[in-house]
Amino acid sequence: xxxxxxxxxxxxxxxxxxxxxxxxxxxxxxxxxxxxxxxxxxxxxxxxxxxxxxxxxxxxxxxxxxxxxxxxxxxxxxxxxxxxxxxxxxxxxxxxxxxxxxxxxxxxxxxxxxxxxxxxxxxxxxxxxxxxxxxxxxxxxxxxxxxxxxxxxxxxxxxxxxxxxxxxxxxxxxxxxxxxxxxxxxxxxxxxxxxxxxxxxxxxxxxxxxxxxxxxxxxxxxxxxxxxxxxxxxxxxxxxxxxxxxxxxxxxxxxxxxxxxxxxxxxxxxxxxxxxxxxxxxxxxxxxxxxxxxxxxxxxxxxxxxxxxxxxxxxxxxxxxxxxxxxxxxxxxxxxxxxxxxxxxxxxxxxxxxxxxxxxxxxxxxxxxxxxxx
Length: 374
What we know:
With 374 residues, this protein is of the alpha/beta class. It has helices spanning 48-54, 102-106, 166-172, 175-186, 202-213, 228-235, 250-256, 273-281, 305-309, 328-336, 355-362, and strands at 8-15, 22-29, 36-45, 64-65, 69-77, 89-92, 130-132, 135-136, 138-139, 149-153, 157-159, 194-198, 218-222, 239-241, 265-268, 289-292, 313-316, 346-351, 369-373. β13, α6 and β14 (239-241) form a beta-alpha-beta unit. The longest helix has 12 residues, at 175-186.
């Protein structure tokens, strides 16, 4: 049995249907089952995926308890949980790692087959621990972090140092880590190489940080928002391109900064379909490698096959290729040791009650990350 058998009533941000307004509701949170923990959320943050989830991505199931980035403290544990306890500080993830399945053993991917990315909006047993007025609630991926309490399968959690900065811990639960891992684990950027990053939100800034750590000599940031220049430089960007002021394509502008040949690696971090072709074309013929990270509601991309036929490589990435148990603790330690300027991401804060204000703030040019105060 879990350490508490009582249902908790708390506040949560709920979207009732495709494109509908988000409301704060009193919801019920069940006790954790045997391999689950119930978490009191301490801090959460806003990612573009959270907006996309109200538009039907990654699934179209409502009512939806929102949020997937955050950090919290374990309130109670299921009776088969042995590696975590009440009072532990954790961050939820949406990628598990069993270290035994074919994929985990191969070391070629972070996509575990035992604990896969879940697009059902439910727990691994296809039920929910959340309800509102007797109606089952879905969540975006493995949990719903914009709720005062939430239940998470223990295989989708990482225990972190209790003194970690809560906002920064929230950032590394998805956005920043996704970008950092894409350069580190997915592309395996080589020292002395050249990199182009399309979109300088938290993910793109994470790519820049990862590319710098890997020793890239030229890191080109591409964004129409001039305010992102300073943010990119803080993480290690060496050159900045604002394509809105030029008649040339962004790929041509990247080539001009890389000897006319293109970069060794490019990273598409926006999810804008047309930019995927641009990011591929910005890489070198024969050897260029593009990592597709961004995603959104529109995921059907008209693709230029010629760009690939000339020897370039396009690879998709989920959570930056990071493994929850093997890799994410390294990023958490770097966060704890202040090896990243994560304060550059923290631009706004709102209480959970003002969650709709957060969506409006996200549209402002000076916004990188909005912290949700629980």
